[in-house]
Every structure is written in C-alpha cells, then in structure tokens.
Amino acid sequence: MDPQILLFTTGVPNLDELLGGGLPANTLNIVAGEPGTGKTIFAQQMMFHHVKQHSDQRVLYLTTLSEPAMKVIRYLQAFSFYDADAFGSKVVYRDVGGYLREHPPNELLEEIMRLVEEVQPTLLCIDSFKAIRDLMPGQDPFRRFSYDLSVRLASAGCTTLLLGEYEDTDVASGAEFAVADGIIQFRRGSAYGEVIRLISVKKLRGQPMNMGEFPFAISAEGIRVVTPTLTLRRMRSATIGGSDVVPTGISGLDDLLLGGIPPGRSIVISGVSGSGKTTLGLQFIVEGARRGEKGVLYSFEETTDRIVSLASGFGWDLQKYLDDGLVRLVNIPVTSIRVDQDLEDMIEAVDKERPKRIVIDSFSLFLHKVEKASAQREIAFQLASLVQRAGATALLLSDMPSREGTKSSRAAVEETVADGSIFLTMELRGGKRIRNIEVYKMRATDHVRGQHRMDITDDGIRVYYHAAQPNADREKLPAITFSPVDDLVSGEIPYDHMWLVRGGPGLGKSVWALQFAVERLRSGESVLFVTTDSSAKTVLSGLERLGVLTDPYVESGMLVVRSVDDHPELDLEDPESFSTTMSDWLDKMPKPCARILDSLTPLMMGLPPEQFKVFLTRRRQLVNRANVAAFDTVMASSDTLQPYLTNHYDMVVDLYTPDWGDLRMAGDSDKPVMRMVKARGLKVDTRPYPYRVRSEGGVVVQKEFYRPQSGGG
C-alpha cells in the first residue's frame, strides 16, 4: 500500500483489517447485497463514525427510490452509533427520488453534483444506486453516467458508497462495477444449520485486502464482522516462564499431574453424563479464586444461579468471588450459540481480562452445530491458541457417549489439538456405581499413568492417589526396631519398610500387631490401628494388657483406633475407598507414625486375586509415606497370592506349627514357630524359631534356640 494514500476507516469492528486499513479516500465503492443484508446500516454506521473521527467534516446521504430518508432515520435511532447532535448538521440527508421521478435520469448527475457542491461532503452515500440503473434508457447511457459520476466525485474530493440490491450476475456485467474502485458484498448464507449474514471484499484497488468471506452480526452497536482468526492474531502474547504449574486444587489429581498443569495449556476433560466434569471444572475455578487468580467459566447448560447453588453445596462461596471480580460466569443458552461470534467474544474478553483459568462447559455442546471435523479442529485450535497467548490454563469439558467407552469425546477431534486429555468414567461394581479418572495424555509433561478411583465428596472431587515423599525425607528418619526380630536381622531396618505377619488361625497374629503398636508408642511415635475383625474396645484392652495406659495416648492424638464395625467408610467391598479413608486418617496423625492393619484377610478373601493385587499396589501408592511404618497381618493360605505377598512387602514374618522333625522339639511339635522370610536389603536369619504368645507379656521368641546346649554331668 502506498503510504501516501489516505484511508477512511469504517467504524465496523474487524472490517478495516479486511480492507487493509480502510477505504482509500476519493474512491468509488459499491456496497452490493440483497434486501435485508445490512447495507444501509453499514453505510450509516460508517457516516456517523466518520464525523465522530473528523468533527470538521460533513457527510451526505442521498436516497433515490428505496426507503425514504425519514424512515431510515427513525430506525437509526435504535443504534448506539447514532448521534442526534450530528444528525442534520454533519450527517446530512437528502432525497433525490422526487427529482428522479420528475426529470430524465441522465439529468440526475447535475443534481447530485449540485448537492455535493452545497454540502461539501468528504463521504457520499447513494442508496439505492441500482434504482438509477433500472430507470436508465439503456446500458450505454448508464455506463457514461457511472463514469462521469466517478470522475467528478473524485475531483470533488469525495469518497463514495453506492448501495444497491445487486446479485452475483450484476457484479459480472454491470457497468458501475467496471468503474468502481472497490466492491463490498453482503449476502445471506448458512453455517452450522442456521441462516447467517456474510460479508466479503470482492475488489479494492491499491489495497492488500482479505478476500475471504466472513460472518457478521447486527446488534444495538451496529455491524460487527466476526473474524476469530484475525482477532486472535492481534492479541498480545503473555510471557510464560519458569517451571511453575497451575494446581487444580483437587486432592489426588495434582499428585497424578505431578503438581498441576503447566500454564498456557488446554486440557480436555472427557466423561459420560454424571461423571463429575462440571464439578471438576468448577472446583478448578474456585481453587484459582482462593489463590487470587482470575477465572472465567463459560456454561452452555447451566444458569448462574444453578452454578452458584452447586458451588454452595460443596461449601464454596462462589458468589463472593463473583462480587470480588475474581470469577466471571458467562451463560450462553444452547439455542443462542453462535459459534464464530461466541468464539470471538471469548478472544476479546480473555485478551482484556487476562484470566489465569478458563473452563468451557461443555466444549462438545459448543461444537454441536459444527458438522465438519475440519471446522471442529480449527475451532479447537483457535481456542488452544487463545489459551496459550493469554498464558492461561483451560479445561475444555467434553461429553463422552455412555455406550462408546473407547471414544475419548463425542467429537473425538479436540484431543488432537489440546495439550492433554483426562478421562472420567463410571462402572457398575457390586451394585454400586464407581467413578474413575485417568490422565490419558499430557503433552511434553510427565504424569502418573493408569486409571484411578475418584469420588465426589461433600468437599468436592477426591482422587484416590497420594504421591510418594522424596527420598531426602527418608534419610532424616531413624531406623525402626521390633524386639521379636531384632537379633535376627543384621543392619538397620528403614523406617518406611512395610511389614507383613502371616499365619494360620490361633497363632497370635493380632498380638504381634499389638506389640508392634506398643513398641512404637513407647518410642514416641504415633499409632493408627485399624481392625477388620474385632472392635476398637478389644484393641484398646489388648494394648492395656501389654502394659500401655491407652487413655493419655488417645487424648493426645498419639493413638487412634478404628474398627470396620464403627466406620462404614471402611468398606471392605470398596478397596479404593478403604485405602483412601486410611490415607485421610493417616494424614492427620503426628509423624512419625505406625499404620497397622489387622487384618488383610477379609479383603484378600472378598476380592478376586487380580483385584486384590491392584488394591495392594494402589494402597502402597496411596498410604505409603517416608515417615510411616506400615504393619499388616494376614491369614496364611496355599493359593497363588502368597508369593505375590512375599514380593510386595519389605519385611515378611511367617507363623506356623512345624511338622515332626522340623525342630529339635520332640514331644512338643504343637509349639508355634516364626520365620523371617524376607528383609529387603538386609541380611536375615531365615531359620524357624519357636515363640510364645502371652496375653500380658506379648510375643517372646526363643532366639537362643540354636545355641549349643551346655552339657550336664
């Protein structure tokens, strides 16, 4: 573009960018389109904008045989660009329809130039110019008329808009289009199953215009061209630096994400109806507000009142965050979705407000009118680009059909563009509906893989996973001692080693657990004792018999005893809930702490072997801590689970009654023995040793059993 060319801006949002900056001055431009497409509004909007920008100039609007000027003016008053002070003085209206009816059409040129000389406008609009052509005696007179008008108006320093109800065939053959410097076409079209208005720049001499076709909307502000791609291109990019992540605020999920989501990322949350997508998105927004971060939630299904009520049900004061300006809710009913326009509104709002967190609920519903996968992908890409430029973090909630479990979302398109995907699923297990979550994809970011149990609790979403503590914390902890095995293990036993005492009925497994608890309490450690086959009162009585006054420990919080009978949340048929409940209690215990479970047997017997293995693995992930010593008891059996248990634990003690000849105990074969089967990383004496279980003295192992006997006389 020649830098010397003066441009007239239109005042129509985004149109000037399509025009390469505006309409060149002193040019003749045709605004073509069928009736009702917005030509007149465009011309009026440009005229009022022009005099607002140039208060010393005037514009002239001439009506021919189309709508009377007074009728046009009456409708104009409903638009915000209308200026009553400029009307009549700076924006001048004249009707040449009467002159055209009373004089030959070829004499109209002089009348137009007389009015131009009188008003001295810098911008002239003639509406409708096609009416003049229709009244001309032939093509040649009209061609001369159009050429002469173009030359004389340019000489008068006047930029001209010629409005007309032209069709595509007129553009190709009409004489006025040959002399026009620019052609802007308005038309009706269809998109996403709806009738829309479209605008395109067909011709503009000397300007690097955009020749694409774009939708536009007419509102109380006038015409607005919808160009999400161009609007996004103008948006300034935020600076994203450092290694910080954005925590979701959802217990367990942040552990799966290794702290949170990197800023600038768009994550698709896919799930069936009722799986918790809306709650997850709302919890993400609320967590940001708690941290003083701005957030915006776009909802196409719920009203503001319903969302505030939903938040209140979890104890979240969303109304306060709305009043403080930390959260903004945008409700767009499904019937009112205009994909391109809504997308551009999002871009402009995010560019202005710069929220740190964005949730779209639901993105699949937003795209439901878009049939082509390529168009869906383009919209998803624009949203992802918006989030990245804003330096925000976005959750795009997407519906997953209940019978299409292999599909990640209804459209299965947004995941290809988004930076990550998280799946929420549900299954029916034992008559109970179970929710699961899986971080399926997280581009260029590590995360914990696999499916994990989740629940919607009174406080929001809870994911059943707990990250392991760093090794540095383990190094600060003392070694653990346990008197029944102290002389059988060489070296220091790490505090966080997991213990298993395994044996048949009547061999005193519970007493071993009680003694482990006693020694921990006497060492100044706290104890969480969970029993599945007795009452809390029985456990406390057992500790008392071993010489511990339990009341002071209970009152100080150093001893907590829980029984399955007293706590229904310890659901033996729901292993994930069982482990999570223990983890919650463990989090509240003073550290270091001994976590004792007596016993694992009901879970082992009640679950299929493979599910029991998964339970043990998940439980270790969930409740294992560097400053926690874990101690379990279990019934010995001959099934294939026993080798797995031996491998799973760090310290394994087997209790059993030996056969005749196993030990030098003739006549005393019914006395039980213990054997250290395993001590991970340590040297251990694996020979069987007799032991006694005393209700008041605890476990006494006969460690001198293999020492040489001193001979008698």
Q: Averaging pLDDT over every residue, what do you get?
A: 86
Beta-strand residue percentage: 25-35%
Radius of gyration: 40 Å
> How much helical structure, as a percent, in the residues?
25-40%
Count the strands? 31
Terminal-residue CA separation: 122 Å
The spatial strand order of the largest sheet comes to: 5-4-6-7-3-8-9-10-11
Low-confidence stretches: 403-411
Number of helices: 26
The secondary-structure class comes to: alpha/beta
Reported for the largest beta sheet, the result is: 9 strands, mixed
Please tell me what the overall shape is: rod-shaped
Please write out the topology.
Blueprint: E1 7-8, H1 15-18, E2 23-24, E3 28-33, H2 39-53, E4 59-63, H3 69-76, E5 91-95, H4 97-102, H5 108-119, E6 123-127, H6 129-135, H7 139-155, E7 159-164, H8 168-173, H9 175-179, E8 182-191, E9 194-204, E10 213-219, E11 222-225, H10 228-234, H11 253-256, E12 266-271, H12 277-290, E13 295-299, H13 304-313, H14 318-324, E14 327-331, H15 339-353, E15 357-361, H16 363-366, H17 373-390, E16 393-399, H18 414-417, E17 420-429, E18 432-442, E19 451-457, E20 460-463, H19 471-475, E21 489-490, E22 498-503, H20 509-522, E23 526-531, H21 536-545, H22 550-556, E24 559-563, H23 575-587, E25 593-598, H24 601-606, H25 609-623, E26 628-635, H26 641-648, E27 651-656, E28 673-679, E29 683-684, E30 689-694, E31 698-701
Parallel strand pairs: 3-7, 3-8, 4-5, 4-6, 6-7, 12-16, 12-17, 13-14, 13-15, 15-16, 22-26, 22-27, 23-24, 23-25, 25-26
Antiparallel strand pairs: 1-2, 8-9, 9-10, 10-11, 17-18, 18-19, 19-20, 21-29, 27-28, 28-30, 30-31
